[in-house]
Write a structure and sequence with these properties.
By secondary structure, the protein is of the alpha+beta class. It has 4 helices and 10 strands. The termini are far apart.
Length: about 190
């Protein structure tokens, strides 16, 4: 079955706790991985070193193909904008079963789609594989929703991370992480 041609190849963001062979760099990330994966008859699978080499892949040739998948995903998203009583967008939620949903952050089309409603600097949370949250980075309300977002992450079937990405004209990078309640110094494991 591994020899069957992949339907799509692309990037799926995952947690640092996942065993993933083929990953790309994410500026500032500590708990998020950007993994090369392929779609086949039974869902998606991460590339192993063996399948990566058997298909003669290299990150430099893989990334442009993954970018096309990300552009397609970003173009077809159906977000739900949450507004306050004045009609100002507080945040957007994108929920989709597409396994490559999280790769939308790679696409400049994502910023273009939300620039008007959320601004040209957007905080993105990839709490789980099938749901993305976007908040305005300037004057945004992300802090207010932090505890609820952390709880959603804890309940997620396919958690990714609590890291906060900044999406702007220059691309994306990790700029922080949502705090877990009760994770003060006394709660941390020290080796």
């Amino acid at each position: 079955p591994d020899q069957a041609p992949a339907r799509r190849i692309g990037i799926i963001f995952g947690g640092a706790f996942e065993a993933l062979d083929i990953t790309g760099p994410i500026e500032g990330a500590k708990t998020t991985k950007m993994a090369a994966q392929y779609e086949w008859s039974f869902g998606v699978r991460p590339f192993t070193k063996k399948t990566w080499e058997e298909r003669s892949l290299a990150w430099e040739t893989f990334l442009p193909v993954a970018q096309q998948v990300a552009d397609t995903v970003a173009a077809k998203l159906e977000p739900k904008l949450v507004r306050d009583h004045r009609g100002i967008a507080l945040y957007a939620i994108i929920a989709d079963e597409d396994p490559f949903l999280t790769s939308a952050i790679l696409s400049p089309k994502l910023l273009e789609r939300f620039k008007e409603s959320l601004g040209d600097r957007i905080h993105v949370l990839l709490l789980e594989r099938n749901r993305i949250y976007l908040f305005p980075a300037t004057g945004g309300t992300l802090e207010e929703f932090g505890p609820a977002l952390v709880e959603e992450y804890r309940q997620a079937q396919f958690p990714v991370s609590l890291e906060i990405f900044l999406l702007d004209r220059e691309g994306f990078r990790v700029v922080g992480e949502l705090e877990r309640p009760g994770a003060g110094p006394e709660e941390l494991e020290v080796e």
